[in-house]
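During the no-cost extension, the postdoctoral fellow (Dr. R.K.) reprocessed legacy sequence entries with the updated structure-token encoder. One reprocessed record is reproduced below for audit purposes.
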Amino acid sequence: MRRKASLIMLAFAVFFTALSPLMRWYAFPRLAKIPANQYQDMVLEAKNATLIDYGTMKAKKVPKVTVVQTLKGNVEASEKIEKTAGRDVVVWDSLSYVQGPDGKMISKIPERYIFDAHSQDPVHATGEMVDGDPVTREGIEFKWPFLTEKRDYEYFDAQTRTTNPIHYKGTQNFRGVKVYYFEQTIPWTKVQFPRTMPVKGITRESLAKTGTTMWYTTVRKFWVEPVTGAPVYGEEDHKEELRGGTLLGDGKKVTAFAGQVKMREDYIKHTVDLVKSNRTLILLLTSYLPWGFLFLGVALLSLSLYLEARGRRPGDAAPTQAVEPEPVNA
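Re-encoded structure tokens follow.
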């Protein structure tokens, strides 16, 4: 019985030991992915900001500018792209809606962001755009890969339509969560006017005819939870200027917007709680289950060897063999 039990224990030991690396290196890359139907929204605010008054073409101080950002998974579009891409694809239809202190729209910028559900690498397909302009993204946007590393990444800037390094600046603790801090600086760059302008009758094309141009710079900061790759907090030191042309005069410029854009407090709390929950699920696949299976395999192997050793102890008495009686000669 002991030998039979030891063989069963040995079989289970081999099974769980082999399952440990399979869980981490085979199952995790295939099971961990962004759901195609994900929806999330976020509100950011820039308090005591500077904003242009298009009526006077002068900058003025305002108590607050609000940015409402939504990300909506487009399941139908992702399924269509998957047929030709040959991999799991997520399509996010994003909208960045900026409004002034009076609640009126300043700008609204739609985006379509297409990426690999597992790695977050961009996937190039018809429909990829920023504000109606076709783009070919390189690098990440909105989210870092699962198991984010302590290194620089390439990050896509929607306003300039360019990809630039975002630098790892160190490990910090943000509200009880271990995070990696990343920072990116976009120098002053000439950019497109939004297609939807806050003043009726003013369009991107009509502004282009005046010779007036828009310039933009920002310092972008993210605090990223490394297991999920999700930012728990972000902010930007954001500045936009109008320069030259018949609206202002050659060599002149005016601030269109300037402010420190930060996540609103209630959204910070919600994001931290959500990331903590998702972090546990990722750790199950990358740490808890693989290590648990490995320790269980070692324990079962030890028990198997113990039972085998007990079954072969030299002190055990050898079984006696019955001796046939010999016939007696008369």
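The mean pLDDT is 89. The radius of gyration is 31 Å. The remaining legacy entries will be reprocessed before the final report is submitted.
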